[in-house]
Amino acid sequence: MIPRYSRPDMVAIWSPETKFRIWYEIEAHACDAMADIGVIPRANAEAVWKARDVTFDVARIDEIEAVTKHDVIAFLTHLAEHVGSDEARFVHQGMTSSDVLDTCFNVQLTRAADILIADLEGLLAALKRRAQEHKDTVRIGRSHGIHAEPTTMGLTFARFYAEMNRNLRRLKTAREEIATGAISGAVGTFANIDPAVEEHVCAQLGLTPEPISTQVIPRDRHAAFFATLGVIASSIENIAIEVRHMQRTEVLEAEEFFSAGQKGSSAMPHKRNPVLTENLTGLARLVRMSVIPAMENVALWHERDISHSSVERTIGPDTTVTLDFALARLTNVVEKLVIYPDNMLANMNKFRGLVMSQRVLLALTQAGVSREDAYKLVQRNAMKVWEEGKDFKTELLADADVLKALSAAEIEEKFDLGYHTKHVDTIFARVFGT
Amino acid sequence: MIPRYSRPDMVAIWSPETKFRIWYEIEAHACDAMADIGVIPRANAEAVWKARDVTFDVARIDEIEAVTKHDVIAFLTHLAEHVGSDEARFVHQGMTSSDVLDTCFNVQLTRAADILIADLEGLLAALKRRAQEHKDTVRIGRSHGIHAEPTTMGLTFARFYAEMNRNLRRLKTAREEIATGAISGAVGTFANIDPAVEEHVCAQLGLTPEPISTQVIPRDRHAAFFATLGVIASSIENIAIEVRHMQRTEVLEAEEFFSAGQKGSSAMPHKRNPVLTENLTGLARLVRMSVIPAMENVALWHERDISHSSVERTIGPDTTVTLDFALARLTNVVEKLVIYPDNMLANMNKFRGLVMSQRVLLALTQAGVSREDAYKLVQRNAMKVWEEGKDFKTELLADADVLKALSAAEIEEKFDLGYHTKHVDTIFARVFGT
Amino acid sequence: MIPRYSRPDMVAIWSPETKFRIWYEIEAHACDAMADIGVIPRANAEAVWKARDVTFDVARIDEIEAVTKHDVIAFLTHLAEHVGSDEARFVHQGMTSSDVLDTCFNVQLTRAADILIADLEGLLAALKRRAQEHKDTVRIGRSHGIHAEPTTMGLTFARFYAEMNRNLRRLKTAREEIATGAISGAVGTFANIDPAVEEHVCAQLGLTPEPISTQVIPRDRHAAFFATLGVIASSIENIAIEVRHMQRTEVLEAEEFFSAGQKGSSAMPHKRNPVLTENLTGLARLVRMSVIPAMENVALWHERDISHSSVERTIGPDTTVTLDFALARLTNVVEKLVIYPDNMLANMNKFRGLVMSQRVLLALTQAGVSREDAYKLVQRNAMKVWEEGKDFKTELLADADVLKALSAAEIEEKFDLGYHTKHVDTIFARVFGT
Amino acid sequence: MIPRYSRPDMVAIWSPETKFRIWYEIEAHACDAMADIGVIPRANAEAVWKARDVTFDVARIDEIEAVTKHDVIAFLTHLAEHVGSDEARFVHQGMTSSDVLDTCFNVQLTRAADILIADLEGLLAALKRRAQEHKDTVRIGRSHGIHAEPTTMGLTFARFYAEMNRNLRRLKTAREEIATGAISGAVGTFANIDPAVEEHVCAQLGLTPEPISTQVIPRDRHAAFFATLGVIASSIENIAIEVRHMQRTEVLEAEEFFSAGQKGSSAMPHKRNPVLTENLTGLARLVRMSVIPAMENVALWHERDISHSSVERTIGPDTTVTLDFALARLTNVVEKLVIYPDNMLANMNKFRGLVMSQRVLLALTQAGVSREDAYKLVQRNAMKVWEEGKDFKTELLADADVLKALSAAEIEEKFDLGYHTKHVDTIFARVFGT
Predict the structure, then answer these.
(1) What is the Cβ-side half-sphere exposure of residue A231, based on CA atoms within 13 angstroms?
(2) Nearest CA to B118 among B226, B252, B7?
(3) The Adenylosuccinate lyase C-terminal domain covers which part of the protein (chains A, B, C, D) (predicted)?
(4) What are the tens digits of pLDDT across the range D143-175?
(5) The CATH fold of domain D354-414
(6) Sequence-ordered list of residues with C-beta below 8 angstroms from that of D3, at least 6 positions apart, any chain
(7) Chain A interface disruption, residue of B199, B231, B361, most A CBs within 10 A
(8) Which of A197, C91, C115, D156 is the one with CA 20 to 30 A from B415?
């Protein structure tokens, strides 16, 4: 996590203050539940809520941890300083540190997912708006980087919308999967704590009780979560690379927004670099690199080892913060992307109608010309375009053999862009609904 | 994909014969749809079905491909040899190779998913049976590889069941995601083919039409698919490592089944190696290694490039074949795992009751002894066990200071294993339902 | 490993025949060494060489393995069928299977490295030739895909040469690292076999004795080896992406060679797809995906477990075969790449001299114009080029304020391409030597 | 990078202060070189050194950057505040930001490598000391986690030494590879700056001039660097897992040092968790996760894009800081590892001599007993040990059939541990030299 690629709301989820606040809520709700089932006095449970409005003192907790060498104990000691030693004496009873740590981590991941869901929804809104705006902006479709057939810029945005919408569904599933809590004791047997405590705490925190935990919540959930973030990052890269291609000097069908004040813009007007989407390409790698470690974390020894912990301390914050930033940046890029429809048309016509050669070929065969002859007819005109810089349609209209098979009007029709855009509405209806 | 880690049904999905069969069905159904909307004559569509029972001749197709340098054209040429050149002349009309290739690939992945789903269901059945069999087989729970508190072997199986059940849900989602088809033409605009063709073909093949494709089906679907396989593989590793630990000489709480005939078993009875689960550990890595390339495949240039293709030619078969084999092997290991309950008890008692020290400590404080004094009482008896080989309970029962706080019966009760297993039924109900 | 991405020499290294041949040599040389130190009779060692010219019968060995369930024993049994049971009775004495398997694997990797080294040398020769051919072929250098300053195509080839030359050095180092053998017995203590045997076998096979092995050769060597292949693959991707960019329709500075017979080339002359380099982009991912598993293989349990084996059975052949194919394909692409110098110049001049704006800016300040004024002077002329399609140099020459600072000749000089290429010889001398 | 897994010296390399200091040195040395060749006045070059002892004000630079939106310009502006605007006017002349940024990054990586080299040397010293200390401490060697034949703890340390020594060589190579600098201008042609400047700056900073750069230093160097760190991390994991296994309750052949004051140690003396090596297992994953992104960074578009930058801003510091911490932690673990030779012997004898069964089998066949008969003799005695808890040697000595082949003394000899350790000196000489 580095400041220039971070946004405050996501960063806040991973602050010590937030962590201690979640720990506090877990402990306080657990006390309530224990009082409910008569395991501890009601008064002691109520006393814990005296700290309801406290912002815990991170420096003080660190100070205590320096002595106790144990973060949860340090926090509990500090909590007792607020609640009173005697009143606090039942706090954490029958629980293990992991009950607090793992449940807290999942609360944090769930909240992170909520931000990411909102990010995706914002991105989807931007993509939808730009799709509708450019529904009929014709550009050349390319396979292998080579001109193929016409499409529209709206379809480009629409497919990114559809892809990100799938990511939204995936993320919601991943969020649901990670939203579990566990208060099940040293090896998950509830030997020292009643399952009712887990149920109450989870309900209060918006979590589902983990059906079976050991001391830890099983890490396949986290692996699935980070894998989902990796897929989203890959889709970000997909859009980023499209923009980078559109902005390259020879293509110039679009540019990232360039604020008036940004230095160098007008003395070297050609030198506007797609630095935001290049950056997004790199950020995608950073998000993706958490996937394999998260999967390696699944296989813990017996009921638990702690090999996963250092990995999660890093990828928990870093990956969610980076993805949040990347989604926000991408949304900004999409919203402000400067589109150049004229350049799109100019690019499409770079080879003066040659992109229609396949359609002409098809029309000739449908008009009864043999495949071989049709090929020769198209070929000899195409070569004049390619080698001599002629215009394809003009050449065809001047080719007597072609005119035997196709009327001038039929030839003209083959160059009608409407032929290629006739199903755009159908596709939009599929993607955006009616 | 190597033979020793392959099973025939999954391998068959990836055979050329299967591929050509699927291509054939796509083309034939497409002709039907084109006839339905009047684009081609019904007779020509019907003629294609003459090849309904043909097993296509792979060698012949290869022979043609050697000339045409194009696999789909080679297939179509061969198809015409069966159907008749004239009858076949409308086959593939308006379609591009990718319409066939991508739809076929998703059919293959969907079928692969069906096998993997069945594999997982088989594994779940085995885990459930073993869980119930060993529901009350007590063993020591371990954190960090160190004895913690008692649990049961049934809980171990139950948590693997719960984890694999989550994987089943994930896989079903991934299967649904990958079960799409596209017949949308050169850049996905349906310029040369009606969307109705896509709808019909998909319906016949059990697929959903891809809402918006380019020439290819978007690769985020595949990334999500392979990521899911990676999570499943990580869970396989999780179980494999548990078995490997249980089998190591000093633990010996379980062994992979060792057939009577396997050489060396009885002259070196200690030397039964957990080679199946070690192998599964490696296979998990092989499955997992497809995840990042599948994600790197998402960002294609413009409407498509073909960088993803070589990756998929490899990971499509290799990853599904390996995972299928691994799941089957794991199921076999689970079904036949030889469990040694006596060794479990012996291990638990390695330090003569010391695993109960925490419970005694808690009991002392609850009986009113101060935390510090309780600690000292437990400590002095624990050290006798640790250093002099005494029995913990015996020592406690002989310690007058302990007896001031706890009666002999109370001390005895602290060593009752039932304390630790009292919620096993609750957990089983959560995992397996009532 | 799939046939279309494989070449026979590399495939042969991984054939069962080659493997058994290497096993045979290990065993035969080991017998010699044991005879040398008097551990077995000389006659028995000599007898083993009776099989010197035998091509081992893979089917027969498989047949035996089906019974013995052990590959090395199956081979030894078959070897005895050639040598005679009695004569062969000392073969493999004191050795373990891993002595044979691991030493063989390293022989195979070493031979694979030799092919890859030759591949790289071939690629380097091609890059060098193309570099010299196009040393002075000017093209625009691009940062961020945006025109920056002129460079030459020769420099592009030269930097790929320098990069691949580093890869050659890395590969030679990796080859040296992997060229070790071990004949050290069950846990590497030489309890049952004298170190002299290891020394002799290694010397005969061109290997260095592993200084300390356990039962296996340590896997950090293999991790370093596959990591090196991953770096090479990434450099392949680097070159591939350059070619793909050069070939895209709007750039068209180069094209992969397109044989006259390849269908569709002339009827759609614009539609020549860079499929070879797209394929290389995918192959690079396939090579790279072996790196993490190879690293995960390093941590074996105690003296060895067999988790690495399934990984290596796959990545050993697949990764080396894929990389060999990729290097050969890339060499072919480089050798035959069709370069379009005219298009390079046309692209450079797309914005009629604007790429020189920074140089003009610098010249103005050096001529005493304040930075702010210089900027304004450049800006107002640049905008005429950008917005009105004027020529930059013409505008400058017509701008009285500019002419106050720079003479017409000085302005002309700023557009001299020789300014940018003056150090090409220096760089070539650095890269290729004098 | 998180504080608890960081050490100050490595962190300092990545501080803004260090970065600006290196930028300063690059610029100042560049001015000297430009003065040397007469491009700028000597006085101006000398003036830059007025800032020689300045600690640059990071906050002030940030303030300027907030306006200029460009980090290098902000730094240069601040530098002029120290040197004087007029004196500083030739600073950075003809250079691009990347000349500074990339050269600085390589200086940082080189310094990081120096620390890591020192770390490795420290680890090697610890491993060597422990190896010599426990050269003759016999323990059972294990394959597949199952007892195989005796080895010594010294050999375990020695093989870790040999592995880390290879890592040291790899790291030195990687350091040498990354120790390059480039001052070659916008696209690497030296159009605006003489190669002599690059040569001087590199010489002053202990770097080699990059033979051919573009605007950036080629990223295959960085890929090789991070791949090397990934291999080292994998070796750390290898040692960590050995320790974790040794410490697990049932094995208890070693324990991480446990300071007297650490809570809970004596009331639950069995509960000493190998948390340091578990942590190292996780840290290894964190280091390794940088390898693939570093390789993905190699393929930049044309002369450069900036996709690599965000990746490097993260993995540059994070990976080196984590690896430095991990090596230091591992060294500490190795130095203080508490070894339990008695437990090693007890473990070895868990099955009362059965680990010698293979040696007895061999001895019987060498004594002329047929393989089948020898197997039966060993088997029947082994089963008594396995099933009835008898002692293997005792049984053999009481077996008349065995005694027909082997004398009592010969049987006794088979249980001599010296047989297994006789080549330890040889191996030590190979590893540590004479």
Answers:
(1) 29
(2) B7
(3) 352-432
(4) 999 999 999 999 999 999 999 999 999 999 999
(5) Ribonucleotide Reductase Protein R1; domain 1 (1.10.40)
(6) none
(7) B231
(8) A197
